[in-house]
Amino acid sequence: MTSFAAYAPDAGGRPPAAISLRPATKGDIGGILRLEVVSGRAAGSVGSAEGYRRAIADPDRCVLIAETVDAGRRLLVGWAKTHHLVEAVDPAPPGHYLGGITVDPAWRRRGIGAALTDARLQWIAARAATASYVVNARNRASIDLHRRWGFAEVLRAPRLMGVEFEGGVGLLMRADLSVVQPD
Ligand SMILES: CC(C)(COP(=O)(O)OP(=O)(O)OC[C@H]1O[C@@H](n2cnc3c(N)ncnc32)[C@H](O)[C@@H]1OP(=O)(O)O)[C@@H](O)C(=O)NCCC(=O)NCCS
User: Fold this and answer.
1) What's the pLDDT score for residue 44?
2) Is the model's pTM score more than 0.85?
3) Among 50, 62, 90, 128, which has the minimal tally of Cβ within 10 Å of its Cβ?
4) Does residue 72 have its Cβ closer than 6 Å to ligand 1?
């Protein structure tokens, strides 16, 4: 089973969700793990609580939570992180990467993925001139999500940032951030 969203280019136009974004804390780790499971991530590929804890504690990374209020309770509906690659381990070069994003399937196509991406690009733009991400060539929903920021393919390889791609092809995508205005 794939954890990618089904590609549906004509399914847009839904009203935006009323969400707020905030930096993740240790208290979000349970919610992040739950979200990965409901999003269909295979058991073996869900990150570890310890890995999430390290990412949240790392000042060189941006880890964000998207939440809404449902019946008076806060509900985690998406999360995303950046990754600062300092030393290349394969063809992916050092730099700041959009390092993963998941939106609850029940909340998709309501602008949450775009909001989490815009906020992370603002964060990267304050530190670097370009941002990159790696994606499975089959994940067309993710490729379309990132298109509006001008990401273009730099190279393709079976392994990028230590990730082996199901189907054998991963893409390294990069955008010039000179057009993204940091806060
Ligand atoms: C990819 C993902 C994060 C998108 O989140 P989202 O909240 O649904 O995205 P948005 O509502 O902000 O979508 C913004 C735009 O992205 C594109 N897009 C998003 N999902 C799409 C899909 N399933 N098919 C085609 N285009 C899609 C559309 O252009 C969309 O605009 P529109 O709705 O006006 O047509 C979400 O589908 C997800 O969590 N997927 C599983 C995890 C994953 O693949 N992560 C990326 C790894 S690189």
Assistant:
1) 64
2) yes
3) 50
4) no
